[in-house]
Amino acid sequence: MSTIGNIRGEYERGSLDESSVNKDPLLQFEKWFADALHENLLHPNAFVLSTAAADGKPSGRVVLLKGIDPEGFVFYTNYESRKANEIKENSFACMTFFWPKLERQIRIEGSTKKITNAESDDYFNSRPRGSQAGAWVSPQSKVIPGREGLDVSEDLFLKDNEGKEISRPPFWGGYRISPVKIEFWQGRTNRLHDRILYTWEEDEWKIERLAP
Prior knowledge:
Strand content: 25-35%
Number of helices: 5
C-alpha cells in the first residue's frame, strides 16, 4: 500500500473556458455526454449519488442516469431503499460523473423529488422482464440470509407470472434531481484544472470559474 502516494497521471486532453461553454448547463451536460457516448465509454451514464440522512451522515453509491429534461436528471430505485429513506429525511443530493478517458468530471447538486407514476410506469414497462421481476423480489438495502432465497424468489415470481404482463411495484419508481449548482471539471497539466461552476440565482444561471 506504500505505493499509493506515488501514483501519478497527467491530464492533457483539453481545456474549458467561461466564454466557450453553453449558457445553459443542461445543454452543456448534453454536449459532454454526447462526447462520452462518442468515445464508447463503459457505462457513461453511471454516477455516484450522494445523500445524507437527517443526522448529516453521508452515503454514496453508483446508480445509472435514465433521463434528462429541462427540470433535471432522472434515476430509478426502490422507494424503501436506504437512499430513498435518506431522501425522505433530506431531499438535497449530489450527483458525480467521472469520465477518466475524457479527463472530465461533472458535479450536480440539487433537490430530489419523486417523478409521476405515469413516468415511472413508462420506464418500468420498457425494462427487460428479468429486471422487472428483480424489482419485485428484492427488498433493497435490507439484510437477507443469503443469495439462494433471492434466486428462488425470482424463479417463483417468473413462473407465477408466465405469460402475464408485470406491472410496476408501488414501492419502486423514479426520482428527479432539480439542479441548483452544476460544476464542469476539465483536467489540465500540473493539476491546474479548469472548473466552471453554474449556480441558479434569481431565475438565471450564474457562471463562474473556481480555482483548482
